[in-house]
Specification:
Low-confidence stretches: 1-50
Shape: globular
CATH class: Alpha Beta
CATH architecture: Roll
Distance between the termini: 27 Å
Oligomer: single chain
Number of strands: 14
Helix content: 10-25%
Mean pLDDT: 75
Number of domains: 1
Radius of gyration: 17 Å
Largest sheet: 12 strands, mixed
Strand content: 25-35%
CATH topology: Carbonic Anhydrase II
Length: 242
Amino acid sequence: MPRPPLGLQCSGHAWPPVLSVLGLQGHGLQCRSGLHARPPVVGFTLGPPSSSPPGIDWSQWWTYDGISGPRFWGVINPAWGMCREGRRQSPINVDPKTLLFDPNLTPFTLDKVTVGGELVNTGHSVEWRAAPDVPHTVNVSGGPLSYAYTVTHARLHFGERDQQGSEHLLDNKAFPAELQLYGYNSQLYRNFSQASGQVYGVVGIALLIQLGERMTPELRVLLEGLDTITYGGKSFRRGVKD
């Protein structure tokens, strides 16, 4: 599995399709293996698009270091030009000195339902994907969001060292890990693919994770089977009927 992100990088997607708002409201989250999350930072980090010339799979070629790292994403594939040209890209460094307090900002609301899914080692990160065509979905609303968004997948980024692994930075400091939840605007669109090309179509909520002694049952369930997907392409299914 390639080295996880260790700092501030650009995203391969253009600005308009994705809602990107910063917010520091929320509740702490106790996580697996002694991790606990700080209040969330909302943004988007969808990574480079998967469009590739015939015979070349760019989605497997890009990395976070060297000649295939973020500084070259906009060069190795023209479809990722926003990595070179964009000025409003994510992840970002959250500078506390530039934040403005919003007294009207409400906490996020997340549906408390159980859904099946699949934990996948993508070769770049660990990703949880909600099972399709399930009777219940997890929706998130509130905070700076004007719509309800259905969560479709989540990505866990971590580093080779405990002190550095998050994509977003807070006051130029990285966190040991970062959990990113992604969803589509289910009030206006039918699915993630349709919403991803629209303004306010997709939202990403990033939880900055810190090391701790206590664990959260929810994250323990989310990452169940993690030790079975050591290599890229491996997956673990839970609560999904074949």
